[in-house]
Amino acid sequence: MIPDEDLKVISLNQADRHHSYDLVQKLTFLVISTEFVICGYVLLNTEKLFGMRYLSTLFLVGTLAGQFGILWRFCYNQTYHENVHAKRSGFHGFCHFVQILSYWVYVLLTTIFFIGSTMAAYTYVAKTEHGNITRQRDPDDVANFFRNGRRFGSSPDYALVKQGVLDSSQWDHVATFHGLYDDFKACKDAATCLSSTGGDKWDCMKLNE
Poorest-confidence range of 124-128, 183-187, 200-204? Predict the structure, then answer.
């Protein structure tokens, strides 16, 4: 016969364990949901955020962190259930190993994701404040955006460029032709028209295939 005091201690310990289990579960799903929400926002607003550095890397890290978090939580629930009910399946050892491995991968990726997101957001905001990125894009950023496998329309995109005044080997990116039936023809017509006025020399530069 177990004394009442011992029963109360056991009951309190079980309540504490259940509370801790429930708290960790809610916190884990909150973090995972936050990661997926941020990644979803990045995916839907890629064109608006293309000035942010390492955006694709942060997206990959965030989605992997969420997936490893789900895997860790699944294995944790499985081993916790088996330990509580003293029923261990043949996969208990393997599941426990996967639980430990996925947990540390999840913690590492989550830490990298949130620190990286904070730094990337700070850099983007600072660049917006000092460089007016929202109103005047860096020509190199625009060119890189189109070069990174992004083509709009059925034809390759072209940049309208103007020859530098002080350095004739330097060509400045002035405008971009994309999404038209024939981007090259439209760009060439504009370059020819501008060049015919005299003074500056205009040409077209292919941005992608």
Answer: 124-128
Instruction: Give the pLDDT score at 101.
Output: 93
pLDDT in tens, 111-137: 999 998 888 888 877 776 665 444 445
The residue among 110, 101, 99 whose CA lies nearest residue 61 is 110
